[in-house]
Amino acid sequence: MPGFARYLVTELLGTDLGRLLRARPLDNKFAQYFMYQILRGLKYIHSAGVIHRDLKPSNLLVNENCDLKICDFGLARVQEPQMTGYVSTRYYRAPEIMLTWQRYGKMVDIWSAGCILAEMLRGKPLFPGKDHIHQFFLITEVLGNPPPEVVQKITSGNTQRVVNSLPNQEPRPLRAVFHEFDNDVISLLEQLLLFDPDKRLTAETALQHPYLAPYHDPDDEPAALEKFDWSFNDADLPIDTWKLMIYSEVLDYHSLGSAGALDLGPGIEEPTLDPTLDPTFDFLQADI
């Protein structure tokens, strides 16, 4: 309506994981709790048939209570027979996207989650490629050459020839990269950062991994009741209709109360962030 402003108000979270990581590496207990919430969110998203496709630290919002929420679904899509190749920020981009697969799926988010876990532990990206070729080279320095079953799925003949021409590269044990961390987190990384997406853990199975045992509760890790309906993308409705639909959605959300809130259960305390992490994080008024 002319002369009237329209606002869509969302919850304010004080910072994002990217800003926290630029301050300093996170203690393992924070990495563990954040990783649990990332995978809990991915379980729900994937159960609705949605792929985020741009999971990265700056798209993970965090508040002073260490609540983490996934944001920026601008590249999110329902899984389709053919998918766009150029998605996801380079450092967190799954190899099947770089290898010009056109039938990748939700496991691209699992790869990104593994890269984020590695970055939380190291304090810097695991695969900081300068371009997509350098990115792939850095991945092979850790994982070795892609196995034949992965190369066979490459849809571009040129890309397949380039990959086949690469010198033989033996995989480097992740234990050598993360030597100061315990076996559980190494084990989880090894099952997330795999060339073959069919062999990666799903979000649901990753939640059952021993590394996340302090927080895992199958009764508090919801899945979507139905697949997400993308038909609104094609809708051409009057502005008043959109306003009524948004208002109705807000009412529905508040009627749910805290049904979707994270319940850690008795005896489990969530970590709290130290406000001395960085002067810009004065809002983090919690004891550690």
Question: What name does CATH use for the topology?
Answer: Transferase(Phosphotransferase), domain 1
Number of helices: 11
Shape designation: globular
Order of helices and strands: EHHEEEEHHHHHHHHH
Number of strands: 5
Helix/strand-derived category reads mainly alpha
Beta-strand proportion: under 5%
If strands are numbered along the chain, what order do they take across the biggest sheet? 1-3-4
Q: In the CATH hierarchy, what is the superfamily?
A: Transferase(Phosphotransferase) domain 1
Please identify, by name, the CATH architecture. Answer: Orthogonal Bundle
> How would you characterize the largest beta sheet?
3 strands, antiparallel
Oligomeric state, counting identical vs distinct chains = single chain
Instruction: Flag low-confidence runs.
Output: 80-87, 278-288
What's the helical proportion of residues?
A: 25-40%
Look at the structure and give the CATH class: Mainly Alpha
- How far apart are the termini? 49 Å
What is the CA-based Rg, rounded?
A: 20 Å
Describe what this molecule looks like in 3D:
This protein has 288 residues and is mainly alpha-helical. The chain has one domain (15-281): Transferase(Phosphotransferase), domain 1 (Orthogonal Bundle), CATH 1.10.510. 37% of the residues lie in helices and 4% in strands. It contains eleven helices and five strands. The protein has helices spanning 17-23, 28-47, 95-98, 107-122, 132-143, 148-151, 157-164, 174-177, 183-192, 203-206, 239-255, and strands spanning 15-16, 50-51, 60-62, 68-70, 77-78. Strands 1-3-4 form a three-stranded antiparallel beta sheet. A two-stranded antiparallel sheet has the order 2-5. Helix 2 runs antiparallel to helix 4 (107-122). The chain is globular. It starts with 14 loop residues before the first strand and ends in a 33-residue tail after the last helix. It is an enzyme of class 2 (transferase). This is mitogen-activated protein kinase. Residues 1-212 form the Protein kinase domain. GO terms for molecular function: ATP binding; MAP kinase activity. It holds the Pfam family Pkinase.
